[in-house]
Amino acid sequence: MSFTTALPTKFILPDLVSHCDFKLRMNRHHKQATAESKRWLFRGDNLTQKSRKAIHGLKAGQLTSMCYPDAGFPQLRVCCDFMNYLFHLDNLSDDMDKAGTKNIANVVLNSLHHPYDYYSPARLNRMTKDFYKRMLPTASRGTSRRFIETMDFFFQAVHVQAIDRAKGVVPDLESYISLRRDTSGCKPCWALIEYANNLDIPDEVMEHPIIQSLGEAANDLVTWSNDIFSYNVEQSKGDTHNMISVVMHQECLDIQCAVDFVGKLCKQSIDRFNENRGLIPSWGSKIDKDVAIYVGGLADWIVGSLHWSFDTTRYFQNSGREVKRTRVVNLFPRGK
Question: Which Gene Ontology molecular-function terms are recorded (predicted)?
């Protein structure tokens, strides 16, 4: 008698929404900023109807408006443009080899370092300079520097990811976590918290271990939860740059056990954020106020990203509301 083990057809999501008690808010300018940002993204493009539909379903403007709820309209518009742009970069990098990612990095980083002088025929040159030149007048020097530095980190990590993908390498968990903190694109988004709220926090404060730990905990939650939510789509494409795949490979776990494992880490990252929030030192009333706004912005990102993940069609197509209610994800077949 022979026995065959049936492949799993579904998995259950961890209940991260209930574990996060931060208040979800929406920026009052979200409709106008969202509409204008999509027009900006579509201007001069050659996107297919399918690609445009995906961008509408992405709801990047909603994500931005929940993550920067107190931003004024000009700042929110820049953040919306960057969010659409970041997802555009993510989609481009998914389809590119290491040479392609390096070329994109050169265009983007040169555009950021030389927004008034550098020219390339690449559309990314125009897009990068356009949103960044609107950011510069009110961004502090430290904010601008952190934004460019973290974009550089992003491209360095994406380059490594492209090499791993080409070689079919599944990294170990520790290496993956380190790399994912940069491929996520969260770090430049943290710089935009400063920009969106007109903050000018001294470098020594931003570099304090507790502030760094808060940013890392928020990054981990946003990134690791995203790996859970996006796993179904990514496994259907054979993409292994996902924490679920890494854990399954390293720990020899099935899908559900790996999802539970990563879900536990996500909950611990929220707990870590809350613990560190209570350990913030004082630098005087003015700086303390700005730091509180910045840390509140990280919390907005945590709660905003969790709820947005079920509203966008990027991960659960049109079933996000049902998945949010039941937490059941039906696996797509490979090659979908």
Answer: metal ion binding; terpene synthase activity
- The Cα 145–Cα 151 span in angstroms is 10
Reading phi first (left if > 0) and then psi (alpha if -120 to 50, else beta), residue 14 is in beta
CA Rg value for the chain: 20
Query: What pLDDT, in 10s, does the model give residues 172-186?
Result: 999 999 999 999 999
pLDDT tens per residue across span 212-251: 999 999 999 999 999 999 999 999 988 888 999 999 999 9
178: amino acid identity, one letter: S
**10-12 and 328-330 strand pairing:** antiparallel
- Tell me the β-bridge partners of 11: 329
pLDDT in tens, 156-169: 999 898 888 888 88
Report the SS3 class of residue 10.
strand
Q: Which tens digits make up the pLDDT trace of 72-95?
A: 999 999 999 999 999 888 777 665
- Closest Cα to residue 24, out of 82, 78, 66? 66
Could you give the 3-state DSSP secondary structure of residue 198? Answer: coil
What ranges make up the beta strands (E) of the chain?
A: 10-12, 328-330
Q: How many helices (H) and strands (E) does the chain have?
A: 17, 2
Instruction: Tell me the pLDDT tens digit for each residue of 36-76.
Output: 999 999 887 777 788 889 899 999 999 999 999 999 999 99
> Nearest 5°: phi and psi at 330?
-85, 125
Q: What are the boundaries of each domain within the chain? A: 17-315
CATH class assigned to 17-315? mainly alpha
**Nearest-angstrom CA–CA distance, 250 and 173:** 7
85: number of CA atoms within 13 Å, CB side? 24
> DSSP secondary structure string, 10-36?
EEE---HHHH--PPP---TTHHHHHHH
